[in-house]
Amino acid sequence: MNKYSAEYFAKSFYDEHNFPLAYQKGMSCEERENWKQALTDKIRELMAFPKTMYEEPKVHLLLSKKQENYRIEKYEMSPEPNLWITFFLMVPDFASEKHQTPGVLCLPGTGWTKEALCGEDFCDLDYDPPQPITGNGHRYYYANTQALHYVKNGMTAIACEDIGVGEHAGESLDVNDIEKLLIGQGRSIMGVTVEIRLALLKWLKKLPFVDRSRIAISGHSLGVDSAMHIVLLDTDVKAFVYNDFICDTQQRISTICPPEHFYPICWHMYPGIYRWYSYPDLLAAYAPRKLFITEGGMTEHLERLAEVYAEYGALENFRYDYYREYSAPENRKYDHKPLPKGLTHAEYFEFANVNPEKHFFKFEAAIPWLKDALK
User: Fold this and answer.
1) The dihedral formed by the CA atoms of 86, 92, 96 and 98, expressed in degrees to the nearest 10
2) How does DSSP classify residue 255?
3) How far is residue 357's CA from residue 173's CA, in Å, rounded to a whole number?
4) What InterPro entries is this protein classified in (predicted)?
């Protein structure tokens, strides 16, 4: 690459993997707790939460509808001035102060609406083999109805959506334009998203029919990005369904070429995201709380995370499954091999043990795991 190119300069940062707040194997208990505190403090700094955040978010009920064995309610919420979002709450019929349920915050994949998470607008219950792709590129409607699966299994669930999606789409600006406006004020879509979802958790934990000691987050695809930050900022979260493959995004960026194949969309971004820590470091800081990674990833990352849980003596709190195609070790032909430069995205997925055609919410595994984790 031409050394005079601005691209050469910008990409040079991504070839280095010296994160100041990376997890260090063999830390003492005190060192580990100090590291967690430093990492959490840095996340708060990078999220750039405003001083105008309300102590208690403003919440108003908009509608309620009875379904078979549960009710669905729509609310609006404001965590700070001029910021309003809507979300759905799904409550089992038996839920009461005497019969409290677990509470689950459900975070969607890219472009999925809160209605889709509730099963209110899907049209096909089939999820395997893949459904034909619709106009918005979505598949696996039934599998991805996270909130519907959870409420049918006796849990109170919140379904929300991302900035720029559904009711939260811009009127004249797209999500990238909105991100530019926020960055101009020292903020980011990720920071606002984490702020919103922390407010949702705060409200959820105060519902009289929800057991505050049994709170979980369930993130699919894009949803795991904000979830990894939220679970470190809210220590009441006892269990985390991570429905994606574990990924070191900086490593991914430095590996894949041409660049248009890997630069993340703005929902992933905030200033400093690749400077201080990697995503596996965030998951290491979540240990020893209960974690289920449903779609595997690079074995070296999964084994590293297992080592962290083992250091806590809590290996039973960590589970990971691979995609079915990579569940047998002999099918993971690139395990522990160096990751070369210049891969296409498809080649990278092979190295990462990922089958993107089968990327959907693995409810058949996630539901029983979470029920057991929160019993």
Assistant:
1) -140
2) H
3) 31
4) AB_hydrolase_fold, Abhydrolase_bac
Tokens of 228: 């990894």
Question: Do 297 and 335 touch, CB atoms closer than 8 A?
Answer: no
Kindly provide the b/e burial profile for residues 70-101, where b requires at least 16 CB atoms within 10 angstroms of the residue's own CB. Answer: bebebbebbbbeebebbbbbbbbeebeeeebb
Contact 319, 372 (CB under 8 A): no
Residue 37 in domain: yes
What is the pTM for the complete model shown?
Answer: 0.93
Of the two residues 357 and 214, the one the predictor is more confident about is 214
Nearest to 210 by CA among 342, 97, 351: 97
pLDDT at 267: 60
Name the pairing type of β-strands 156-159 and 210-220: unpaired
Is residue 133 very low, low, confident or very high in pLDDT (cuts 50, 70, 90)?
very low
pLDDT digits (tens, 9 = 90+) for 180-202: 899 999 999 999 999 999 999 99
Structure tokens belonging to residue 151: 């409420």
The CATH number of the domain holding residue 312 is: 3.40.50.1820
**Sheet of 290-293, strands arranged across:** 58-67, 70-80, 83-92, 156-159, 101-107, 210-220, 237-243, 290-293, 318-320
Report the mean per-residue pLDDT for the chain: 90
In-domain check, residue 3:
no
10 part of a folded domain: no
Number of structural domains in the chain = 1
41 to 45, 48, 80, 181, 337: CA distances (angstroms): 6, 11, 21, 25, 35
Q: Domain span at residue 245?
A: 17-373
pLDDT level of residue 256 (50, 70, 90 thresholds): confident
Residue 9 lies in a domain: no
Q: CA gyration radius for the chain?
A: 20
210-220 and 101-107 strand pairing: parallel
| Helix, strand, coil distribution of the chain in percent, nearest 5 | 40, 20, 45
Burial 118-151 (b: 16+ CB within 10 A, else e): bbbebeeeebeeebeeeeeebbbbbbbbbbbbbb
Residues sharing a CB contact under 8 Å with residue 51, sequence separation 6 or more, in sequence order: none
